[in-house]
């Protein structure tokens, strides 16, 4: 009987302990208040304390919260989490405010920054707050727009692609980054090795020809499909391994591509779909003729380091800018689509223009503009070609200062 009483007493004591633990557990759940935990473990703010804040302090409170870490409270499983701080830059605020569905101008820098401006802006109205800033991981060497995409040539042989989202705005947060040389190896397009396993050379220049993107890395051209971003073909341009510096085409419907290499006064003409070199020619003779009016020392210096510095095709004419400041026009020949016919240098007409620059021609562009005639009240579209370079030269004027004044950059405008 004593054993039975002792056993009953133990069961009763055990039951009382379990009831007490259950009650304490319930009280803990009821009394426990959800807390917001920051990355700073010393800071704990309850939800009730936030609700008790007077409305007159709302502005200061919001400022304080925005400047602190971002907090997160998952209510579904009653777990408390903390997240890393999210820094909202001025550029990110501008990105939300700007509407990139309108026409924009993109500017790339050596620091890997893309600046996007509205085309309606002018030098007087543009400001830091009206631009969009996108930071990429490497220097930007070339930007090209086609088929509602923006292609960006980057260092390390990488190609960046920006597309529009469902609303028509540019999706700047999720660009596609693709290594051109790795794609070439993967698809067996003719180049099977990367130097030292780590390519640091950039895509120096891009152009669009026959619906394909031509990307230059060192002395090689990679022909990329703009939709799949696969490399369909690649070929070597210069046997001396000089890097490609300029590419010019007449647009996606044309079948010719002009290529110049660094430090060279030669130009090569390729067929856009057969990738055959149709012609190699030098601009040295045409430049020498224009420099006859210059001082002997200046002429010798310019011819000694002569190179092609810019290429641009406009209205069946190739505009060639040179390091000597002379601008050459070459009539673009009509090519047969078979791509089998070789051209000769004698079939080309090279003409040096009467005006040029004292120093190197930096680049050449063209644009169409509408001209309103006040007398006839009619409008007409004219094409303007602009060359930008150091200084200005009039080769029809036999002045002793010819070729000496290149202190200021000049823009020369031709109306076609």
Overall domain count: 3
User: How much strand content do the residues show?
Assistant: 35-45%
- If strands are numbered along the chain, what order do they take across the biggest sheet? 8-9-10-11
Structural class: alpha+beta
Question: How widely separated are the two ends?
Answer: 123 Å
Q: Tell me the total number of β-strands.
A: 28
Mean pLDDT: 76
Provide a count of the helices. Answer: 7
Residue runs with pLDDT of under 50 for 5 or more positions:
25-97
CA radius of gyration is 34 Å
**Helicity, in percent?**
10-25%
Shape, per Cα inertia axes:
elongated
Report the biggest beta sheet as strand number plus sense, adding barrel if it closes: 4 strands, antiparallel
Please render the helix and strand layout as text.
Layout: H1 2-31, E1 35-37, E2 44-46, H2 47-51, H3 58-67, E3 71-74, E4 79-82, H4 90-97, E5 104-108, E6 113-118, E7 132-135, E8 140-146, E9 149-154, E10 158-162, E11 176-179, H5 180-186, E12 203-209, E13 212-217, E14 220-224, E15 231-236, E16 244-249, E17 256-261, E18 266-271, E19 277-282, H6 284-290, H7 296-304, E20 308-314, E21 317-322, E22 327-331, E23 350-352, E24 355-356, E25 361-373, E26 378-390, E27 393-394, E28 409-415
Antiparallel strand pairs: 1-2, 3-4, 5-6, 6-7, 8-9, 9-10, 10-11, 12-13, 13-14, 14-15, 16-17, 17-18, 18-19, 20-21, 21-22, 22-23, 24-27, 25-26, 26-28
Give structural attributes:
416 residues; Methylamine Dehydrogenase, Chain H; 3 domains; four-stranded antiparallel sheet; 7 helices; elongated
Q: What does the model show?
A:
The chain has 416 residues and is α+β, with helices and mostly antiparallel strands. 18% of the residues lie in helices and 38% in strands. It is built from 7 helices and 28 strands. It has helices spanning 2-31, 47-51, 58-67, 90-97, 180-186, 284-290, 296-304, and strands spanning 35-37, 44-46, 71-74, 79-82, 104-108, 113-118, 132-135, 140-146, 149-154, 158-162, 176-179, 203-209, 212-217, 220-224, 231-236, 244-249, 256-261, 266-271, 277-282, 308-314, 317-322, 327-331, 350-352, 355-356, 361-373, 378-390, 393-394, 409-415. A 4-stranded antiparallel sheet has the order 8-9-10-11. A 4-stranded antiparallel sheet has the order 12-13-14-15, covered by helices on one side. A 4-stranded antiparallel sheet has the order 16-17-18-19, with no helix packed on it. The longest helix has 30 residues, at 2-31. The N and C termini lie far apart (123 Å). Mean pLDDT is 76; it is low at 25-97.
